[in-house]
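Before a colleague's protein record goes any further, I have to sign it off. I want your independent view on whether this chain really folds as the tokens say. The record follows directly below this note.
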Amino acid sequence: MHSDLIGKIEKARRYAEEPERIALDEITVRFHGGNNDHIVRLANHRWMCDCEVFHLRGVCAHIMTLQKVLAPMLSAEAREPGPVIIHSELISMIEKSRRYMHELDRIEIQTLRARFRGNNNDHILTLTDVGWSCDCATFRVWNTCAHVMALQRILAPMLPAHAREPGTVSVEEHLVSALS
């Protein structure tokens, strides 16, 4: 394995311990709720959910869960609680959100756009149905980089299978495991 890539894997492990380096600009999630699947989006620091509760109240357990799970990567505006609602409804949403936080397999990230504050420069990362991309030089060479690997590690339980896979570079599994 190329020694440069080994260094990037080690850097990714360190970066994964610092999720505050990541600023989520946009994210789309399929949330497997108790009754139905819902699409939840963050764009321009504002949340939207296609569930009925969100349309009625402007807040829901799906968004509350994502705000907690992704908090270190969200802007202050995106972390803001929704509108004040009737007490009993709020208690129900909080209870549901707490349960969902322990069931991250309910959340499947479909797309995202994030800024990553690296040691030397900031980088833009995206995830689409095609896969990952990053604007750094390492990604252009290896089709993976420390920034992508760190996000894969942080978001692993919420990523679809294709987004958890390493880049196209052939990586010896025992070396990757040793660095994990």
